[in-house]
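Hi F.,

I've been meaning to write this up properly since the lab meeting, where we talked about keeping a consistent format for the predictions we share between groups. The idea is simple: the sequence comes first, exactly as it goes in, then the structure tokens exactly as they come out, then a line or two of notes. No screenshots and no reformatting. I'm using this chain as the first example so we have something concrete to point to.
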Amino acid sequence: MKIVSAVVAALIVLSAGFDVARAADPLEVVAKDALPADVVKVDIAKMKYAPATLEVEAGTTVEWTNSDAVPHNVQIGTPAKIMGAMLRTGQTMAIRFNEAGDYSYTCTPHPFMKGGVKVKPKA
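Output, unedited:
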């Protein structure tokens, strides 16, 4: 009888539209029109990322801008956790880092271009 009551209660809760909140993804691509005011910027120029390494707090959005004459991208992790599209001169890509950790990135057509983001827990 207790099992039947528990199953019935669970079905009632689920049918009422109860939704368990999910945690945010560790990494999220952020659209240009949704960028926060306090975005951290990385410039892509002269075949390198500047600055190449960052230290930020969880929840921070980082935006890469290609100022170079050739296309570049940003691939986070190996294997890729995020594979950014090729950015032409003046184009941008932004990622929100939601979880603490060390994230390395590279430009896939130019693997000598490397960078990293160290994400600290939110204070």
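Notes:
The beta strands are 27-29, 40-45, 48-50, 53-57, 60-66, 75-76, 82-83, 92-97, 101-107, 110-120.
Residues 4-22 have pLDDT under 50 and may be disordered.

If this format works for you, I'll send the rest the same way.

G.
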